[in-house]
């Protein structure tokens, strides 16, 4: 990973997003996650939006911009630098609703009673053994554990506890095989509150899974 910490700005849809080498660079293809989230917001129940593993906040901020939504947005990331950039980017984007950036682990970020109409989850999904293939990316932002799904499962646990009735989640993963594994495990667990009901694939760049309450 480069040691150049000069601030950078990237276009992300209609937004300008600040970040530096300590934060995962905004990927142009992930504007598709914002687009899908914005589509879902038009028919979502009342309530705020949550983004997990939010990084610099671009996906959630663009989703609200595209939807023209006045909903509040909560951005959660465990990295303090990413949260600092998320605050800067939220101030620039100026969504109609309030933006609450929380520097926290996923499991401790939310109060038990908080519920969200839509959840966007962007967990790292690169298997640990493959992280070295991406030297320009911060390892902590891409390392998804042995099978690339360790953080994704934590995100799904949080979604199960905090998704409002009638709400949905758009979860970013790396491959169709990862989505298949998540879908099969959720469907095979009678206690699971979630099901995968759709997906959109973007070649070698990634896959988005649509998750709803069971």
From TrEMBL:
GO terms for biological process: methylation. It holds the Pfam family MTS. Keywords: Methyltransferase, Transferase. Its EC number is 2.1.1.297. One of its GO terms (molecular function) is nucleic acid binding. Signal peptide: none annotated. InterPro entries: DNA_methylase_N6_adenine_CS (IPR002052), N5-glutamine_MTase (IPR050320), SAM-dependent_MTases_sf (IPR029063), Small_mtfrase_dom (IPR007848). It is an enzyme of class 2 (transferase). The keyword Mitochondrion does not apply. Residues 41-126 form the Methyltransferase small domain. The keyword Transferase applies. This is Release factor glutamine methyltransferase. It comes from Jiangella mangrovi.
